What does this fold into?
Amino acid sequence: MNTMICATCGCSLIRLGINNEQAVKFEYNQILYVFCCQGCLALFKQSPTALLKETMDIVVCPTCLAEKRNKIMLSVLINDQTLHFCRCPYCFDTFKENPQYYIDRLEGRTGFKGLFVDDEKACCH
It folds into this structure.
């Protein structure tokens, strides 16, 4: 699943309402990384190896958009894609009601504005 995760804090950019065009980007070792804000990019530049190690196995539940380590998520193969769900039964049941919406949202194709859309103090504004 191709969802953007901040290489510094591990936040789902989709959960924050940040699309690909809005994401802060930086190339490191010939790989393009995304960040939720300039502050996270500045921290990344100070300690990229350590931060990448901390965030490399984070995945996002398509339903609640929770960011968790891959090993504690429920992995399900759906339409030749592996999706990672938090273990809450609500999330998987809700996903099954409208799977394409949740897949599209996770990939940033729905116009989802983010959980903090009304919080002017949030770093992602």
